[in-house]
Amino acid sequence: MESSAEEYAAFEEKVKRTVYLDNLSPQVTESVIRSALEQFALVKSVSFIPNYLGTSSLPLCALVELDSAKKVKEVEAMIKQYPFMMTGMPRPVRARPSVMEMFDDRPIKPKRKMKCCWLEQSDPDFEVAKELKNLTRKHSAEITLMHNILSKEEEKLSTQQAETLKVHYKKYKMIESIMTDRAAHTLARKYNLAVADE
Amino acid sequence: MIEEKKDPGFEWGKKKGFGGKNREVIFYESFIYDGVAYTLYDSVYLYKEDEPEPFVGKIIRIWESGDKKKRVKVLWFFRPCEILNFLEGYEVRENELFLAAGEGLGLANVNPLEAIAGKCNVACILKDDRNPHPLDVDLQNADFICYRFFDVGKHKILDKIEDKIAGIEVKNIFNNLYSQKLGGLSKLGLDEKEVSVKVTTSNEAAALSSEKNNQLLVEKLGVKGFDNVDSRDKTLPQAKEKENGIYTTSLAKQKSFAKLSHFSRDSLELKEISKIGGNVSIDKTLLKSKTNLDMGGHNIVGIPDGHINKQLAEGKVSEKEKYGISSAKMTNNVKSRRNYDEDDGVKEVPSKKPKIDTMSVKHSDDKLPDRQINKRLGEGKAFEMEKYGAPIARKTNNVQHRRKYYNNDDDEDDEKEVPSKKLKIDTMPAKLARDKLQKESSTTSLNLEHKLDYRVMEVTQRPDIDRSKWFKPMAWEERMKNACEQGKLVRLENLDPSLTSSEVQNIIWHGFEESCTAKMIQKTAYSSPHSGQAFVIFKRKEAAESVVRKLEEGCFLMSNGRPLVGSFELPCLSRKKPIFYGHHAIDQPRQRETKDALSTSHCSQPNNIEYDMALEWCLLQEREDKSWRRLYQRQGEELRKLKAKLKSKI
Q1: Most CB atoms within 10 A, among A146, B246, B447, B591?
Q2: Inter-helix orientation angle B304-314/B238-255, to 10°
Q3: Which GO molecular-function terms appear in the entry (chain A) (predicted)?
Q4: Is residue A13 in some structural domain?
C-alpha cells in the first residue's frame, strides 16, 4: 500500500491545518470543542487521541482540523495569551501545532526504506543491542514514573486550589450574608463608617 | 450439442435446463474439467492470482451462456483468516470454514468455470435434522469442516441457518445426497470403457478382482515405497494401472459413487498428474508413481470404506471380507501416514518389505469374521501400519521436506532430498486433509523452531494475508480488549516514531513470518521522541508468545540502530471514570448564569480568582513541559552514546 507522493503531500497539508489540544477534561466531547473553537475558526474535524498507555488520569488530547494553517496559529496564540477554559475551571487547555506522528491514519512516507535484521550472538553488536533494549525499557519506566510524579503534582495543586476556593467561597458567602441580613449596616452605623449601599 | 472445445480436459455432463430469452443459456448439473468430474453443489477450490491460498466455495449453478462462456455461480466459504475481525471470542478449529449466509457482498458470485482449481472436501458437521451426518471416513478425509455460518450482511457468526442460502435449499448445501444420487448415473457413462468391460461381470468376480488387485496393490505399495526411496523409479507398471482402474470401476458399479469415476478416469487415461483427491500437484513425470500409489490408497480409503462399513452393518459379509480386510489395512495405512506426519522422524525403511508381503497374504487368505474386521477398522492401526507405513511415511516425508523447501528457501538441509527437477507445487497449493494437517504442522514447527535469518532484510510490503477487506473491521479498542484477554496482544517498543501501523505489520512479517494487526500509539505532547510504541494483535496466542520470547532472547535490529522490544504489557483500557484534576465547582445551588458560564468555553479575564488559578495551572504546565524536555534530552543523550558503539549500521 505505497502511498503516492500526492497523497502524502495532502496529508502534510492536513497536518499544518490541524491544532493539537491537550489538558482536556474527560467530559469534553467533539461538540464542545467545535463550539469552543468556532468563534475563532471553522472546525473541519475533531478526533481524540486514545490513551492506551500509562496512567488513566492522563487528560484527553485531541486533534482539531481547522480550515487553514493561519487559523491554527491564531488559535494557538489566543489560547496561549488567555487561559482558555473548556467545560470546567480553572485548569486551562493548551494548544500546539500538530505533528504527523499524532495522526492515526497517516500514509506511509513515500520512498522510505526500512531495514531490519536479526543479530547473531557472536556479533559484537549483540551486546550493544541488548543494552539498548534494556535502556529502552528503563526509559519507558522513567516515563511512567514521570507521569506518576506529574500527576501527583497536579493532584496537589488541584487540592490546594480546591481549598483556596472553599475559603474564598466561605468569605464571599459571609460577606453576602452580612450584607443581606443588614448586619454590615448595623455595624457601619455603630462604628460610624460609610457603607456602600445595595 | 456438446461443442468440441479447445480444452480437451473439458466436457459437459448432464443438462439441467435452458434459460435466457432465446433459451441460449444452458444449465448443467455436472461437468468434467481437467479430468475431474464436478457436480452441482460440490465444494471446490478457486484459484486467484496473487492470492496465497485458493478460495473455497460451493458450486450452486453451472451454465453456459449464449456466447459459449462457461460459468459457475459459487457460494463462498470463508476461511477463519478472512473474517478474523469478527471471530473474537469464538473458538475456531484449524480446518474450519464458515459458509456465507445472509445477504450482502461476499455471499456468492459468478466466476468463469476455468477458475476452478480442484475439488475440495468440506464436511458439514452441523447437528441439524436437515443435515445427514457425515461418515467417519468422510470426516477423516475432509479437507475442511464446516458447521457455522457467516452472515455477510450482519457480519455475524451464526450457528443455525434458515431453509435457504442464496436461494438454494440448504439440504443441497449440507453434505449433499444430491451429488451422490446423481453421480452414479452421469458419471458411469463417462467411463464407458471400464463399464463395458466390467458391468457384466458378476459381483463375485468384481470382488475377486478387487481382492486380487488389493493384494497386488499392497505388494506394489511395498515395492513402490522402495522405489521411491531408493531410485525414484519412474516406470509405472501398466498392469497395476489397469487393475486399479478395474477395481475402482467395479466399485463404482456396485455403489455408483460419484467420486470414483474420476479416479478411475485418471488412472486409466494416465492423465496429467492428478491432484490426489483433486489435490497436491507434484511434478508430473517424476512423481507419477508416487501419485498413483497415493491414488490407490485414496480410492480405497475414501470410498469403499463407507461401503464396507455399510455392508458390515447390514451383516452381509460373504466374499467381500478379504477386500474389506485389505482395505482396512489401507485405511490404516493412510492413518499411519498421518501418524508419521506428526513425528516425522522416520528414517528406517525398506527392510520391512518381506513382512508386508506376508501380512497381506495372510490377511487376504484368512477369512476373518465380521467383528474382527470392525475391530481392525476401529483400532488396528498400531502394528501393521508401522510396516506399511514406513515407506509411505518416508514418501510423505519427502513431500513434506519439499514443502519445507518451498516454504523456506534457505533450508539447506533438505535440499538433497529434493529431486533436481523443478517442482511445481506452487501451481496448486496442497489441499488434502492430511496434507493440510501436515502443512499446518510443518509451518507451525517452522515457526516455532524458525531459525533466525541473520541477513539484513529490507522491509517491503508483506503478502496480504488478511483478505477481509470486504468487511469493515471491528473497532480497534474492542479487538484489543479481546486479544488482550486471549493473550494475543503484544506491545512493541523502540520503534521509529514515524512508522505507520502498516509498516509495523510489514516489519513483523519480515522478522517473524507472522501476520498481525498493528497499531502505532499516536504521539502526544508527552510521548517520547525516541521510542515509538505499537500494540500488535497476533492470530494466535502461541505466535504472540514466540515473538515476545524471540525478542527477549535475540536482538532484532531495525534501521537507525533500534533493537525491537516486545512485551505483554497490557494496555490501559479500564472503563472506570478517569480522574481529572483541576476543575472545581462549588457544590451549591448556583444561579443560571454561572451554570452556563461553566459549561461554555471561554477565555479567562485577569480580574477574578479563576484567572489566578488558571495561571497557577499554566505555571505547572510549563514546569511539566520542562521536566519532559529534560527527561527526553537525557534519554536521547544516553541512547546516542550507546548507539555510537554499534558497529554495523543498517
Answers
A1: B246
A2: 50
A3: nucleic acid binding
A4: yes
pTM exceeds cut of 0.80:
no
What is the tens place of the pLDDT at every residue in A130-187? Answer: 899 999 999 989 988 998 898 889 999 999 999 988 898 899 888 888 888 888 888 8
A149 and A98 part of one domain = no
Which ipTM score applies to this complex?
Answer: 0.89
Closest-approach residue (CA) in chain B for A84: B603
| Domain membership flag for residue A113 | no
For B625, the closest chain A residue by CA position comes to A150
The amino acid at residue B636 is G
Tell me how many domains chain A contains: 2
Q: Does B605 lie at the interface with A, CB-CB under 8 angstroms?
A: yes
Shared domain check, A65 and A148:
no
CATH number, residue A70: 3.30.70.330
Instruction: Confirm whether A192 is domain-assigned.
Output: no
Cell numbers describing residue A86: 473548556
Identify which of B281, B296, B291, B275 has the alpha carbon closest to the alpha carbon of residue B227: B291
Dig out the grid coordinates for B517 from the structure. 494487526
* Amino acid letter for position B155: H
Q: What is the pLDDT of residue B586?
A: 66
Statement to judge: residues A10 and A52 lie in one domain: yes
Same domain assignment for residues A137 and A54? no
Could A84 and B603 be called an inter-chain contact, meaning their C-beta atoms sit closer than 8 Å? Answer: yes
Q: Is B635 exposed, middle or buried (0-12, 13-18, 19+ CB in 10 A)?
A: buried
Residue the block writes with cell 533436481 = B420
All residues of chain B having their beta carbon less than 8 Å from the beta carbon of residue A57 are 578-581
Q: Domain ends where: A35, A68, A102?
A: A102
In this structure, the answer to whether residues A12 and A45 fall within a common structural domain is yes
Q: Provide the domain limits for residue A43.
A: 5-102
Establish if A197 belongs to a structural domain.
no
**Residue range B475-520, pLDDT digits in tens:** 788 888 888 888 888 989 999 888 888 888 888 888 888 888 888 9
Q: What is the mean pLDDT of residues B72-87?
A: 82
What are the cell numbers at B536? 500488535
Where is average pLDDT lowest: A16-25, A141-150, B414-423, B578-587? B414-423
- Tell me the nearest-neighbour CA distance from A66 into chain B, angstroms: 18
pLDDT score for B473: 57
**B268 vs B124: CA distance, rounded Å:** 32
- Chain B: nearest CA to A189, how far in angstroms? 30
